[in-house]
């Protein structure tokens, strides 16, 4: 995958310090000193929160926990906030999610689907609702605080489209967007404030009951090697990753604009 090759001399501490300085410079350039981000208890949000705390001071970082009714690893999210000393708040989106589902069912009715059945199973469509509700909630809080919303998605996820359009892809800046999942772990382990067992914890979406790798059918190490080396070393895995990469291109682009003056789609 051209454009994302890295030197073998990857130094996690240097990347960490560079990102801290970049966040600080971004804050100074924009004049926005506060940051809001969702805390899931996994490595990505933990590392992003730690970088922001180092750059802007823990008093300027709000970690928001957003369970959908019950979240099994909510204690991990709380632990991250305590470890970093950042502001911690919990907003349960369960009631909002249920209200939206009921509103669609009762308001749209069966005639919403001309052929009688939705294209995607309700479960599949429903899995993408919580990330979008979380984004809306985070935007609400960030605007109220005069803060920026920090993204927490990594390069591995965006490469294979393991992200939700208008959900976790929506943010004001993202310090992890050019780091693979493997590299985020490396950077996270270089931050002494973060519990290493949480950085190494198998990532999951917290929605489907499966780990990310179970849902993807490939490992993050394979995705990392495909991005950085051009191949995972497994032809079947390479084909699966490339198919996901091509099929998810729309998630990595701004919305298509139809230009009637030129006839182009840009």
Supply database-style keywords:
Rossmann fold, two-stranded antiparallel sheet, 266 residues, alpha/beta, four-stranded parallel β-sheet, 12 helices
Provide a compact summary of the structure:
It is built from twelve helices and six strands. With 266 residues, it is α/β, with parallel strands linked by helices. The strands form two sheets. It has a four-stranded parallel β-sheet, with helices on both faces. Strands 5-6 form a two-stranded antiparallel ribbon.
Characterization of the model:
The protein has 12 helices and 6 strands. With 266 residues, the protein is α/β, with parallel strands linked by helices. It has one domain: Rossmann fold (3-Layer(aba) Sandwich). The chain has a 4-stranded parallel beta sheet, with helices on both faces. Helix 2 packs across helix 8 (181-189). The longest helix has 19 residues, at 12-30.
List the helices and strands and how they pair.
Layout: H1 12-30, E1 35-38, H2 43-56, E2 61-65, H3 74-84, E3 87-90, H4 94-108, H5 122-127, H6 129-145, E4 148-149, H7 155-159, H8 181-189, H9 196-199, H10 212-216, H11 220-229, H12 235-247, E5 258-259, E6 264-265
Parallel strand pairs: 1-2, 1-4, 2-3
Antiparallel strand pairs: 5-6
CATH architecture: 3-Layer(aba) Sandwich
Give me the CATH fold name: Rossmann fold
Average of pLDDT = 91
Q: Strand order, main sheet: write it out.
A: 3-2-1-4
Into which percentage range does the β-strand content fall? 5-15%
- Give me the count of strands: 6
């Amino acid at each position: 995958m051209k454009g994302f090759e890295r030197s073998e001399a990857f130094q996690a501490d240097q990347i960490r310090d560079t990102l801290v300085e970049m966040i600080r410079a971004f804050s100074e350039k924009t004049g926005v000193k506060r940051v809001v981000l969702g805390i899931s208890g996994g490595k990505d949000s933990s590392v992003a929160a730690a970088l922001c705390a180092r750059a802007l001071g823990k008093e300027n970082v709000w970690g928001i926990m957003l369970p959908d009714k019950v979240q099994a690893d909510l204690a991990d999210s709380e632990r991250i906030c305590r470890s970093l000393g950042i502001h911690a708040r919990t907003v349960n989106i369960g009631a909002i999610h249920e209200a939206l589902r009921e509103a669609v069912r009762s308001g749209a009715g069966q005639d919403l689907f001309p052929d009688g059945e939705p294209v995607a199973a309700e479960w599949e469509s429903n899995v993408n609702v919580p990330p979008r509700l979380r984004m809306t909630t985070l935007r609400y809080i960030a605007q109220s605080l005069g803060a920026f919303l920090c993204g927490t998605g990594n390069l591995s996820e965006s490469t294979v489209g393991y992200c939700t359009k208008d959900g976790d892809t929506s943010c004001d800046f993202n310090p992890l967007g050019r780091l693979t999942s493997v590299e985020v772990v490396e950077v996270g382990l270089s931050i002494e404030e973060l519990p290493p067992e949480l950085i190494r914890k198998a990532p999951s979406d917290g929605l489907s009951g499966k780990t990310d790798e179970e849902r993807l059918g490939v490992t993050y190490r394979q995705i990392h090697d495909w991005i950085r080396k051009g191949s995972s070393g497994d032809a079947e895995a390479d084909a699966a990753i490339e198919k996901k990469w091509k099929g998810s291109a729309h998630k990595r682009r701004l919305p298509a604009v139809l230009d009637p003056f030129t006839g182009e789609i840009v």
